[in-house]
Amino acid sequence: MGIEGYLIVSTLLFGIGAFGFMARRNAILMLISIELMFNAVNLSLVAFNAFLPPDENAGAVFALMIMAVAAAEVTVGLALVIAIIRTRQTAEVDQYSDLKG
Amino acid sequence: MDLLDDLVTLLPELILVALVLVIITVDLFLPRAEKWLLTPLTVAGLILAGAACFVVWDINETVYSGFYVVDDLSVFLKGATILTGILSALFAPAYLLVRRIPLGEFNMILVSALLGMCVLASSSDMITVFLGLELMTMPSYLLTGLHKTDRYSNEGALKYFLLGSFASAIVLFGVAWTYGLTGTTSVAGIASALDGEMSAGILVAMGFLTVGATFKIAAVPFHYWTPDAYQGAPTPITGFLSVGPKLGAFALLIRVFAEALEPLRADWLVIFLVLTVLTMTVGNVVALTQVNLKRMLAYSSIAHTGYIMAGLAAFANATDPGVAAQGIEAVLFYILGYAVMNIAAFAVVGMLQRDTTRFGGLNSFAGLATRAPWRAAAMAVLMLSLTGIPPTVGFFAKLYILLASVDAGLAWLAVIIVLNAALAAFYYLRVIVYMYMRDPEPEPAPIDTSPFGSVALALSVAGVIALGIFPGAVLRFLEESAASLF
């Protein structure tokens, strides 16, 4: 299989993640959608790395870095979701409308 | 260069890392009544890191196999970053302590964010760009939500987090495709691989990078999170958020667009011009209608983003390297001046929120001149500076942007900037009118007069006026910084 297959899957995943982020109104599901987008990027990076001239492994290293950072991002995100559920008893973002103007 | 020599070039960053660890440790052993000691500790550490910037000035080397560059541009941005850190660390404690927000966590997260900005300023590889960006934004989300029991703080933080991570993912997608098309993640490598060639793939990658980056600097039409995050965050922290992450995001723009995508600058210039005009106009028009001062300053900070972007547009449109350098110098000077005046302006708003139950509206400024003449005078200077009236730093900042735009052949852009500045004068001067021409409210809210905040305010106002009278003092630094790009 050529690189095209990987890139199509990666783009599809990214698109699904982006769609989920915009369509879903639950903070945790939005967080999951963002993770999907990050992983789509990882897939494309690893695919590029495998098919490009193999003089260095920048793509694979980058993918590893993204995994670590994405894990940290989830931690921060869940902490913020827990904090807001404590004051509002809901994870639906449409209910978070105190700030506007 | 061997590994140990490379370490010396990282001196400011190493000091920041050590400072984070020291703050965490000291915080453990301090009894509650002595937590305020963390502020002088943090400030001392930051001053040390600032001094270290002078050690690494003029080194101009790429270290760690091309992943990290210590050039004058990055050192200048680090210096400005650390300055914002010092001011924030001094302004915040009074506000935080009344609300029982732990000072140790604040200082530690603040210094982590500063570290991220320093990494971002020095990155010469897309991997370091990404790491720096995340190390800067994740502490920013936490700082926004630091007031855990406050509904507004929670809401602002979550909105900031969701849209910020979404933007990060979009930036990453653009970076991944740039890597795929050029075969390298190095900034210099991308620039030489592109070499002015335009293809559909590059256009898509650049589009993703532009959308993600404009999210981060809060340019219209990707600014929706800004007013909410800024209003929700504890006020002195808002001052930091409106400056620090923006400074970092502009470092990202310079590294990615002015360096990596420099061969394609004629292509991104078009998008930038549209975004620049939209950003300043929308920011100013919406700011006019705001009654909440934090929200007003949030929209005004969007407008200032537009002015800074005009400097980058001047860089991209210039045919002569000297004029292009002038654009970058204008950007750097504006960032520096804006950092000082905006942090201080938000801090004054915070000082009027000593009473946690009261709302910090424009009315709380009514008659401030009779209640607290020095603070009112300081706020007046800051508002004049944000408007761009001499002799303040805001005037020269705008002047440099205007000169750079005109020299780069964008005279029409300069006209739009001037019109926008006139529009902005209306809402900035309204604050001065409230302070000097209205009577105080019947039961005015108490004013915070903590020594740290007062010292920082005096320093910022002195800086705003000093740079407004002698802007040449930083000229040499600006010129050498911009020169490291060419």
How would you describe what is shown here?
The complex is a heterodimer of chains A (101) and B (486). Chain A contains 3 helices and no strands. Chain A is an all-alpha fold. In chain A, helix 2 runs antiparallel to helix 3. Chain A is elongated, with a radius of gyration of 17 Å. In chain B, helix 15 packs antiparallel against helix 17, helix 15 packs antiparallel against helix 18 and helix 15 packs antiparallel against helix 20. Chain B has one domain. Chain B has a two-stranded antiparallel sheet. The chains are: A mainly alpha (101), B mainly alpha (486). At the A-B interface, helix 1, helix 2 and helix 3 of A face helix 6, helix 7 and helix 10 of B.
The overall pLDDT of chain A, averaged over residues, is: 90
Write down the secondary-structure element order of chain B: HHHEEHHHHHHHHHHHHHHHHHH
Largest sheet of chain B: 2 strands, antiparallel
What level of helicity do the residues of chain B show? over 70%
Greatest contact between two chains: A-B, 43 and 44 residues
Helix percentage range of chain A: over 70%
β content of chain B, as a range? under 5%
Category by helix and strand content of chain A: mainly alpha
In DSSP terms, counting alpha (H) and pi (I) runs of 4 or more, how many helices of chain A? 3
Brief overview, please?
The complex is a heterodimer of chains A (101) and B (486). Chain A has 101 residues and is an all-alpha fold.
Looking at this protein, list some descriptive labels.
heterodimer, A: 101 residues, mainly alpha, 3 helices, B: 486 residues, two-stranded antiparallel ribbon, 21 helices, 76% helix, globular
Set out the fold topology.
The complex is a heterodimer of chains A (101) and B (486).
Chain A (H helix, E strand, L loop, with lengths): L2 H21 L3 H25 L6 H31 L13
Helix pairs in contact in A: 1-2, 2-3
Chain B lengths: L2 H7 L1 H19 L8 H19 L4 E3 L4 E3 L1 H27 L4 H20 L3 H19 L6 H32 L4 H8 L5 H18 L7 H8 L2 H7 L2 H17 L4 H24 L4 H25 L3 H31 L16 H4 L1 H15 L5 H15 L3 H27 L13 H19 L5 H9 L3
Antiparallel strand pairs in B: 1-2
